[in-house]
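lol ok so funny story. i was supposed to be doing the assay writeup but got distracted and ended up predicting the structure for this chain instead. priorities right. anyway since i did it might as well share w the group, maybe its usefull for someone
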Amino acid sequence: MGRLDGKVLLVFGAGPNNGGTIAHFMAREGAKVAVADIAPAAAEDTVNFLTSRGYEAIGLPGDASDEAVVEDTVKKTVEHYGTLTTVVNLAGRQTRWPVVDIDIDQWNDQLRTYLTAGMLTTKHAARAMIDGGVRGCIIHLISTAGHYGEAGNSGYSAAKGGLLMFARAAAMDLAHQGIRVNTVTPYAMEHNLWRAGPVKEMPQDPPRTQHSVTRDDVLKMIPLERFPRASDLAWAALFLASDEAEFLTGVDIPVDGGTRFKYPSWVPGHWTEVNADDYRRNLKITRYGEEVEDFYQPDRA
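and the output, tada:
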């Protein structure tokens, strides 16, 4: 405990899965927290959870793709806590389609809510840190789709890949100010299996097509044989935000169980018989990084 004493954290994208868990884990280590989300109820829920545990937290307006909102959110965080040392950006809205079916409005929306939002949160957080004489830390959530070409998901791949390269360039721009910019890359988050809530029947994967893969396909590619959890992202972000990482900037931490670095033709799950249906039968639903119930409850609607 105490790894983030004296830090002030602002999270863009603060639901109870990834953003809320990161906020919770950093608050446990001493950070004062501000959370912002385009859905006010999500930010309010996170604030209520954190304050119920005795942590300092405030909720703020949260459309990270609106420059006036981002500037005001950063300003209010500094006014409330006196400083801003750490920003985590998880903002964005994903839409999937094959290249030949790209909808230009949805394409532009993904670039705006992922890439432009990343630029705006970095720009205004960095300004506040420079004005306050703070050697701060900015962290962006990427995706494996930002490192590789994902069929049926070109808009998301383009937006996340752009954000990855923006973060690296921003790290160089801000290095002389002592502001570090890093990224965390997950692969197929576990909560995507259960976010619709408990159901009587075990949910089935959609059929495999030329533009998609099943959850079982994904699981079989992960050497450590499970999906990343929100807590895995939170531990990585916590490390990057701490003084333990004070000499790291421009780096990406892959939270993917070894997937990025395995030999392409090796499919580990084929040898161990790991499969998504068995995985889901033992799944636990979590909120803010804590288990709250079993996923598979046949007696519940």
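The longest strand covers residues 180-186. Residues 196-201 have pLDDT under 50 and may be disordered.
back to the writeup now i swear
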